[in-house]
Write a structure and sequence with these properties.
alpha/beta; Stationary-phase Survival Protein Sure Homolog, Chain: A; 9-stranded mixed sheet; two-stranded antiparallel sheet; 22% strand; globular; 5'-nucleotidase SurE
Length: 270
């Protein structure tokens, strides 16, 4: 069996240490080609452009656009023979249901599924100290090893006989904070946490939006149950959530009744 052709993208930008770490890990199990944003595109979700300039890059291509732009451009034009899309390695975890739609890393994996191409989103939890701003923390390439090793393992083992992508559209992988242990962190199959922890504070002029979950993660003070992605990462495990991309549809008898009743003249409807 030939090595899989892997389209590698991210949202931190093609020059980020995490991207290089992931690319090098994937070289051990396949034939990666970079189609990644030219600059940082963190938290852009599934935003897309109408056109984007493409630059040749030593690992493939750098696109002046979003992660979704990169996946569309890659699978349609730059790397149409890709067998899989792997996005990352993101600086910072992508955990919880409410984070999924914001993440450019996860959104790249979601976009790939509409091409019927299996995908993996890969992120590394990066804790900070009280006096550190996350934006100013720059982990070295080596700090992404656990996440990248897990991604390479899944690329190599999750397809073929017993293909996990027959059931899941994409995998969301998050590694815990690095430690000094020589052993790999255990891998846990999880579901996204339902915990929502956003808050807003208004001082009369400006409003500050904060995600309060990160401080709670560092303290271990989270209500997430066993089996959730955030609990696994806090407990030092690699979280793997097998997810589907198209929105699910839940039929509801009451809603069917409302639709059936929506008849008659517009002027009298309300």
């Amino acid at each position: 069996m030939s090595e899989p052709r892997i389209l590698v993208t991210n949202d931190d930008g093609i020059e980020s240490p995490g991207f290089r770490a992931l690319y090098e890990a994937l070289e051990e199990v396949g034939d990666p080609v970079a189609v990644a944003p030219y600059s940082n595109q963190s938290a852009v979700g599934r935003a897309r452009s109408f056109e984007a300039t493409v630059h040749d890059y030593d690992l493939g291509y750098a696109v002046e656009g979003t992660p979704v732009d990169c996946v569309i451009a890659g699978l349609e034009a730059l790397c149409p023979d890709a067998d899989m899309v792997v996005a990352g390695c993101n600086k910072g975890a992508n955990l919880g249901s409410y984070v999924m739609g914001r993440s450019g890393t996860v959104s790249a994996a979601v976009e790939a599924t509409f091409f019927d191409v299996p995908a993996i989103a890969v992120s590394q939890y990066v804790p900070t100290n009280d006096d550190e701003e996350f934006e100013h923390v720059t982990p070295p390439k080596e700090a992404y090893k656990d996440a990248c090793d897990a991604a390479a393992y899944l690329v190599d083992a999750a397809t073929g006989d017993g293909d996990v992508f027959a059931e899941a559209d994409y995998l969301n992988v998050n590694a815990p904070a690095p430690d000094d242990s020589l052993a790999r962190p255990p891998m846990r199959i999880t579901e996204p946490s339902p915990l929502y922890a956003m808050s807003a504070k208004f001082d009369g002029e400006e409003i500050r939006l904060e995600d309060n979950v990160w401080q709670r993660m560092q303290n271990g003070d989270i209500p997430d149950e066993e089996g959730t992605d955030r609990r696994a990462v806090v407990d030092g495990e690699i979280s793997v959530s097998p997810l589907t991309a198209p929105h699910t549809v839940e039929r509801h008898e009451r809603l069917d009744d409302l639709a059936a009743a929506y008849t008659g003249d517009r002027a009298t409807q309300l």
